[in-house]
Write a structure and sequence with these properties.
The structure holds two protein chains of two kinds. By secondary structure, chain A is an all-alpha fold. Chain A has eight helices and no strands. Chain A has helices spanning about 1-15, 20-40, 45-65, 75-100, 115-135, 140-150, 155-160, 165-185. Chain B is α+β, with helices and mostly antiparallel strands. Chain B has a six-stranded antiparallel β-sheet, with helices on one face. In chain B, strand 18 (about 805-810) and strand 19 (about 815) form a beta hairpin. Classes of the chains: A mainly alpha, B alpha+beta.
Amino acid sequence: MALSADITDLLHRWGEGDAGALDQLFPLMYDRMRQLAHQRLRTEPDASLNTTALVHEAYLKLVDSPRVSLRDHGHFLGLASRVMRHLLVDHARGRRAAKRGLGASPAPLEDATWLADDQVETIAELGEALQRLEAIDERRTRILEQRYFGGLTLEETAEALGISLATVKRELRSARAWLALELRRGDL
Amino acid sequence: MARPRIAAWGFVIAPNDDRAWAAVLAVFEEVVDLDDAARRARLDAIGASDPELQSAVEQLLAADSRADAVLMRIDADLGEAVPEADPLHLVGRTVSHFRIIEPVARGGMGVVYRAEDMRLGRPVALKVPLAARFVEREAVERFRQEARAAAALDHPNLCPVFETGETSDGDLFYTMPLYEGETLKARLAREDRIPLPQALDVAAQLARGLGAAHQAGIVHRDLKPANVMLLPDGAVKILDFGLAKASDLTLTGSWARLGTISYMAPEQVQGHKVDPRADLWALGVVLYEMVTGSRPFGGGHEIGVAHAILYEPPPRASTLRDDIPAELDQLLGRCLRKDPGERVQSADELAMSLGEIRPDQSSRSLRKFRRALVTPRWRTSMVVATVVLVAAAGAGLARRRTAAPPAPVSLAVLPFDRLSDSATTDYLAVGLSDGIGTELRQLHGAVTPSYVTTSMYRQSPKSPQQIGAEQQVSAVLRGSVQRLDDQVRVDAQLLRAADGEPLWSHRYERPASEVQEIQRDIVQATAATLRIKTTKDERDLLDRPATMDAGAYDAYLQGRTIELAGRPRLAWRGVPAENIRRAVSFYSQARDLDPGFATARARLALMHTLAAATYDTTDGRREQARVEAELALRRHPGLVEAREALASYWILKGDAAKAIEELELALETVANSADLRVALGGALFAAGRFDEAVAEYNHAEQIEPGNLNAAVEAATTYNWLRRREEAMRAFDHAIAIAPGEYAIRVVKGQAYLRWKGTADTLAAAMKLIPPDWDPAGMGTYARYTVFSVQRRYADGLAMLDRSRSELSRDAFVYQPTALMRARLYEALGDRRMAQANFATARSVLQDSADAHPTDPHIRMSLGLADAGLGRSSEALREARQAMELAPIAKGSDVATVVMGGAVEVFAEAGEIDAALELLELLFSMPAGRSVSVALLRVWPGFDPLRKDPRFEELLTRFAATR
């Protein structure tokens, strides 16, 4: 647990305005973020290159975001999940729009193609569904977001949201049911 | 009261209608785990008063039961990133007669558990293929048939299937032997390419395994690196025979779901009938990937890959890697013919052809020592450290060698004096003079030595004429800074070096926040006065402030001052971690205040590379350097500091070619930067391009005659190339530039010892060097070397008693003083004291080795201590491990040092044959300065070999060629 204690301490210092803290934080978080990104992406053979690009973008977003007060390790993972979600969904939407000739260009971040074609549709749809869920139930949105975009374990989600593991499990189930209903709607 | 609105196709919760949504969820969560009857009763009760709520909950319940199926695709694409280790919750349970102990692997295709076969009492691997979870009964039966057929196969390269069955949840499973090892996929993820001999060996084993299966009428259909297991003893096992066919059935039409299609043959991609030749294609792809590091059919996503497989010829492997034998190139071509009829026809034929290919002969003896070894990431050696440090050293400038007329104007910017005494004044003074130098050296018409070089003139009594002569410049800019509350007063004076005549001077009194403007004004005045040629681009650059944020600039100047204060003239010595840390903090503060401040970002990136090369060797730190450098380039394309940072990054990544590219790009902007040329030399050296490296060092020296690192690097490179006379001249030149850098004299003495077999030069150096000079014990080690070679063992012991050092370490040495003492006592014949000291050394070294398990030098010294204690087998093991940790890579002299150490360990342990064999190998290597015939003749550590006539024969033989 020493690692996550360090991370919590650094987040605290970052929140208090210590500029160097985020730079010390990055190496600690890098492997994890890279792992997260790697599992999100299926493009081969340049998967490692793309993973690096995605992590770099996520990092950039974190650095450029207004300094939020981060409680702890779990909170950071939650934030990283959200950053990851927005990057991937924007990218998927851009790709889809480009394919449909809507004139919108793909997200201009790096030139990497992060997603395989068949992932684009899945992620764009998921992004839209989450947006709808967000309007009615924020916490379940976070749970799905952390599962699908952050790749957090259930324990980490509990930590990030400050709720019990049992609650996470229960709410994940209803959130998944809602999502299944929502996505199925389009098929019928 | 608002209600969930029910539509024909589902239900929608009205936005903001939290209560309705909450009610649906509350009921859902209440009833979802009830049994059918209880659930029905509860829902009916609700429906009596609120039919809409009942309907909404029912729909959600129906969706819940289908959720796994509906979300299967999303779960597969975006499932847990840290895979739930045991998604089936089998650990601790008993499945059939297998006790599930722990999950050992988890991939898209399934979960593998370590389990115990309770009937036979043996450990097994139990795999549950998840892809087979959503299958029909027919497919289950098919899978079992296939698995039974595969189980009948008995071949050393096939992983047998012990049993198949079903879990109580209805999941299929099968069991197989539990192997310790890694998959080829994991190996390829770690290492770009597999060494040729090993790749051929793996491919041949795969071909033999496939041959046996094909003879039994079984086609694998899904051979890929993830299905190839590499065992530590070199054996190769093919996994998952038969599974692919079952999966095919279950996942009709969608090869995407099978995972990657990269290894599929054209007929398979098209869904045609597949025969054994599809496996041979797959083997061809796997082999191609092993030897070139990339797959023959790219295209980014699956459609692209499919297109390439069907229609595009693969690039010849030999275009991607130089040492591919022609026969291998041809064989790969024959595996990858689109038409199965034109392909290699059988696995046996393929195995035979593979066996006939001979990789480059010269690597054969090396292979013996290194077969099947994992190549560790390139450790930071002195070479790397030097490149990183020099690259980071802020481009020092000088004149262009092939100076097209008119010749560039050369001038030295001296550190400005501080007239008020405060930290603020200090960083304004340093920052201003450094900033002026940095801007001037961006001009193609000007050359100016780096701040690290001119900083030795801080408060120097030397006249402008003297300084001009020493630095070979025609003008000198000097000045002073005084801080008065929020005002700053700067006096600047430009002098002609020939006679000290003032050419221009000015006094600025401005708010401290305008220091950037003062700097720009001085640069422009200097350029105008000296008639320095500038291009329009350069003038635009000068006009553009680095940042509009005075606070950001202030933080930047502070970072720069801390950084420069830590930079030694001799880059070898490194920047103290504390300076790096504080500079990181200031630069990131500057960046946070102005995210568009590219120079601050680039400097931050450079600091990250320094950290990554020294105290924080994590991948994360290194990658952070790249992030910042690339972001800096996005904001300021062509920024030299960002290119330098990227070059350092690539050196850390072990990719010298990319580092060279970046440095060449940087040199397009500042062609006459001596420091950049030295950095380029270092990268060329790392790439094994020694002659070009020497040329860059010489070029740097012509640009800036006083550049210490150019001289030192030239000296060590000549020495490496065994061009000893030139090395000695370059060492002498470096010593003349910096007489107080004693480390250079020591290295020269060590080089001379290896050339002439006498410690006289080293002894003379040590006489001149003050006795208390002993950084990291290097003075102690040098004296120990002298006494050992001169065989004055008792004097050596007396010296060690006086020394305060307990450990000597540099890039090539890691010796506790106790180890030196032990060897001196041993030479004197005092066995008891020798043993006691060997034991002390051993315990120190064991601790060090535990703390730094991948340091080859520690391990080699540990081997020496073991050998001294008579623990021969441990000694040999340590020596071998040390060699594994120091791979023979281009430009890595660590490997030769370590091999030389291993010879001593073998000798000490009495393994004369092994020692001689290793020496033979060592001398067959192209370069290396660490062990020479001359050294072998005089160093006591090799004494045990002298009794053997083969040793003398070997020395005579190699003396003639070296």
